[in-house]
Amino acid sequence: MRYMIIVRATAQSEAGVMPPPEDGLMAEMAAFHEQLAQAGVLLDANGLRPSSEGWRIRHQRGQRLLIDGPFAETKELIAGYTLIQVRSREEAMEWARRFPAPFRDQLCEIEVRRLYELEDFEDQACVDRFRELPPYKN
Q1: Would you say residue 138 has pLDDT above 80?
Q2: Distances 35 to 66, 91, 126 between C-alpha atoms, Å
């Protein structure tokens, strides 16, 4: 089972403010992610730049509309993620509970969501095409 630990953005992360070295947050994050790697469950992890450097594509009535950032609703934005592969929901919860507070004394949230696997979809030829793509091919 793969789970994504999603770090919600704050006004500070949307402003592009990085934690100062003396804060120790990056060292704490590194230690946590080293533990994930040593346990063999870490698949990927990254911080995301502010939405002012991004864009959205809105699909509506067969049309695509490009919308440049920044985006107003900070609480709906993502500041970073960690992708893990574990044996159970409980194991994912345990790792998420240990995730360092990403913004120290600020109110912030971490959301955890399970990823769909190809086996979750009905057997179709198009699903078999996904199985041949590099991320899925063993």
Answers
A1: no
A2: 40, 14, 37
